[in-house]
Amino acid sequence: AGCTYLFIGVESGVQRVLKEVINKRLNLDAVRRVAKWCRDIGLDLGAFYVIGFPGERKEEMEGTLNFALALERQFGTYPVLMTAVPLVGTELYEKCVQNGYLALSPTPFNLSRASAEGLGMIRTADFTPEEIAHFREQFYTKHKRLAVRNFLFFILQHPRALPRLVANILAAGRGRMKNEIVQNMWLRNCLLRDFSQEAEIHQ
Known about the structure:
Elements: E1 5-11, H1 15-22, H2 28-41, E2 44-51, H3 58-75, E3 78-83, H4 91-99, H5 108-117, H6 129-157, H7 162-172, H8 177-186, H9 188-201
Parallel strand pairs: 1-2, 2-3
Helix pairs in contact: 3-6, 7-8
């Protein structure tokens, strides 16, 4: 039907946080099943995660990060980690104001940094922005290793896709080369389909 990849919003890898903190009706066993299905049919899958909600404990944040890494390790599900952002007008913002959780003023500059860079703006009795930054740093160190490992396994299994990868990276130009490498590292099946389609055209 033309679908080349999927992204799902998991948000938390801890069932209590989903139910009691975020109020999200999501079964993590269902997420695991979807990840396995996507791997089995060759559909690239990414997942969004968020840490730093009021009411979330540090060990639960670690649980989310471990869940994300486990899905990446087992099924190749590409994780994107974000920090909870108290956007003005949202329920999260109102909760932070009422309870004195705002560690930074909700200026456009701070909010844009929180959204784009994961800057922690929330401080509770359970965690600080500095601890959020530490969690993020640890997570991305482990994630990068896994992403490289998964991609090397893919290239070993499909060496004919390597010229297409190199062509994509070179075509991106120096300014976008890093982004192109990251994109191709998780859109592995898209890369393989591109190669297969080109091979059919030239037959």
